[in-house]
Amino acid sequence: MLIRTVLTIFLLTIRVFIPSIYAAPKIYQATSPDGKTRIELTVNEQKNLTYRVLLNNAPVLDWSALGLQLKLIALGPNTSILKHTQRTNNEQFAWPLGENDQIQNNYREIVLDCRSGAFLYKLIARVFDGSVAFRYVLPKQKGYVNALIISEKTTFNLADSYTIYQYNEETVFTPVTLDALTKTCDFPATLTNGKLFLSIGEAGNDTYTKAELTKGAIVNSLGVAFHKDSVNTAADFQTPWRTISVATSAIGLHQFSDLPLRLTPPVKEMANWIKPGKLIRSSLTTQAGLDCIDFAVKHNFQYIMFDAGWYGAEFRGSSDPTKPIPAIDMPKVIQHGKENNIGVILYVNRVGLRAKLDTILPLYKKWGVAGLKFGFVDGLSQEGISWLAGAIKKVYEHGFILDIHDNYKPTGLSHSYPNLLTQEGIRGNENNPDAFHNTVLPFTRFLAGAADYTFCYPNSNRFFTDNLYKTKLQVSKGQQLALSVVYFSPLQAIFWYGNPHDYNDDQETEFFKLVPTVWNESRYLTGEIGKHISVARRKGKTWYVGSAAGLADWNGSLQLDFLEKGKAYMATIYEDDTAGGINKRTIVVKQGDTFPITLKAKEGQAILITPQS
């Protein structure tokens, strides 16, 4: 009996003692200002730093790995958390070059000071309403002068099966389930399980390499892969932010399109020479430049552009971006532009930029050039991205607006250098994408920021048949009008292949004359990825609405709740007619009205809504 009693006491003691030895790992967490979004961080039983993301207490991402693989040590595995700090940020800043002229930047931040082996590093995480962002910092420490990041160990283990809209750089989008994913996917990546819509993005990439998402090692997971090279670092090196945004509808993702701006340092003061606007591309002659300036004045454009070839064959080292070809009298064109308040933008290819950037910037300032367009840049390697960041700064310091083309996508650097008005990183209109592509873009690439879509609007007399086109445009004129509202870019290229003398029907081009490129307020009204989209944007007291259908007819309605109560408005509607042109009609509307949408596949509709006096 005594032996049995002693044994019972021993077993009870073990039950109490064992949990104290094997206590659950400590969880560090930060919650969004509205209390609905949360990140949890812990060092798990295997001593790996991990995180998960929850919305309304339900996991969106299950426990996922964090860390970097350096040449000599892995950060993330064998981690100890030395301390943690938290803070709250509540601010609002003006942004006159955006979709909304005021941006709320409210978040809660947690910083973990970590050690893997003898190496110190930090993880900084910020939690916004609906979004989580985190980055790694390699602080200055004894024995660390520089290090090589061979790979990034960040993973995204989703809590459900998702479909991802896969693409790379300027390709089309392919919806594919994660278990069937065979290719990498660029940031920002959009995923859905039919209930939730996720955007996994990047912000603040000015010294890193291009990273992509790749299929993870376990089911329903994604990892991070370097596209081209490893990353050289120095003390106090910061990686780009990785972001995860969650919405319960496709149009709900739009609220996160300014997240990269919120995560990058602000410009000290907005320069008054940074002017948004619309442009027409000129043929490469003096007279074409003069004609385009006259066209710009008549159609309320602010710029013309001389594109590739104005200084010779762009890929030849012998072509000199300090010397226009004989067919262009550049001083004459620029002077005519100045007399009419129209700026001239000049394209320079990567070959010319690398050879003569420091020469052409003061020279173009002397000429009176308004802006530059960079072409065929390297946005794929650390060296290329770092060079671009330095070049953006130089262009800003010399007082030029900037457009960067080809594989480069925004990561919020415009907040620091607002002269960077737009960039490509998109399959634009010159590639004749279809209506599916056009109605996927608002929910994917445009979540990273502005994009130069280069509208190839057909002229009044013919549907482009020149050598620049292998096929005809795959969407209607009405859809192109609508997309000038749906697609955001402070610098919009409208008539990319157009000759100004060919546009003689003012009704067809009137909406382009009226539509602005930056906004006081924007609202996504309704939309489904690849099916349809409708966006309303306000400038002053006037609203502009763009609606576009995908590859199927769209019959629906818009609620005009965004209009001011008690006021009558005149709605001018520009839509496709039955003969390939644009029909214009007007109706009176007010707040609370239901506006019917009846669009055939590939069509669109643009509306101008002005208050009646």
TrEMBL record:
Domain Glycosyl-hydrolase 97 C-terminal oligomerisation, first and last residues per copy: 518-609
Protein biosynthesis is among the record's keywords: no
Name of the molecule in the record: Glycoside hydrolase family 97 protein
Summary of subunit composition and partner proteins: Monomer.
A GO term, aspect molecular function: hydrolase activity
Presence of keyword Calcium: yes
Names of required cofactors: Ca(2+)
Boundaries of every Glycosyl-hydrolase 97 catalytic domain copy: 279-426
Keywords, in A-Z order: Calcium, Hydrolase
Domain of life where this protein originates: Bacteria
Ranges for domain Glycosyl-hydrolase 97 N-terminal: 31-266
